[in-house]
Each structure stands twice: as C-alpha cells, then as structure tokens.
Write a structure and sequence with these properties.
118 residues; 0% strand; mainly alpha
C-alpha cells in the first residue's frame, strides 16, 4: 500500500489519485444532507449501500470516514431526522423521510455502516 511506502506517497500520480478520491468522497458525504436526496429518500438505499461498501473496503476507508467527515454523528443525525439533537440548532425545517404513506426510510445500510465503523 502506498501509504506504507514513504517513497511512493509523494509520487505525482499517487497524489493526483488521492486528490480525486478526496473530491469524490467529499461530494458523496456532503450529499447526505442535501434536500434533494431527502426528498427522494426511497431511491437513496443504493447510495447508502455504496457508502457502506466503501467503508468495508478496509481499515483505511473506515478511518477516512471518521477523520475526514464525522460520519457517526452525521449518520445518526440523518436517521433520527426531526428527533435529532442537532435539529434544535437549525432554523430550517427538515424534510420528513417517511412521507404521508407511512413507508419507512430504508436505513439498513446506514445502520450497518455505523455498526461496522464503531
């Protein structure tokens, strides 16, 4: 692994790849709290599964989630929705992921992700 080999860590191709992966993960992780994904919550299960699969890739991926993006707090906040303690500090009302048809949001991949990281 390049992170263990000091000589290769600073190779331009490795740096470029690392930067591209960081940009991709930043976009993915910031998407969790976007209003559009919350409105289309029934279709988000594949996205949540993708995040879980990335974290299962290894120790480095799980550490990345924790260090770069306080993922445990963010996912618990997302799953708790309006019951989240973070909701009290927000002026904007949150979208209820469950809709009027009383369908349950599919948070199983997120629960698995939190369990894996913890």
């Amino acid at each position: 692994m390049c992170s263990e080999d000091g000589e290769k860590v600073h190779h331009p191709k490795v740096v470029s790849l690392r930067n591209s992966l960081n940009q991709f993960m930043t976009i993915c992780l910031n998407t969790i709290h976007q209003p559009d994904i919350k409105k289309k919550w029934m279709k988000a299960e594949a996205f949540y599964t993708m995040l879980y699969d990335i974290a299962r890739g290894g120790v480095y991926q799980s550490e990345y989630f924790c260090k770069q993006y306080d993922i445990i707090v963010q996912l618990c906040d997302l799953m708790l929705q309006n019951a989240s303690p973070k909701c009290k500090d927000e002026s904007e009302k949150r979208y209820n992921m469950g809709g009027s048809n009383q369908a349950n949001a599919k948070f199983a991949p997120l629960v698995s992700l939190v369990s894996h990281i913890v």
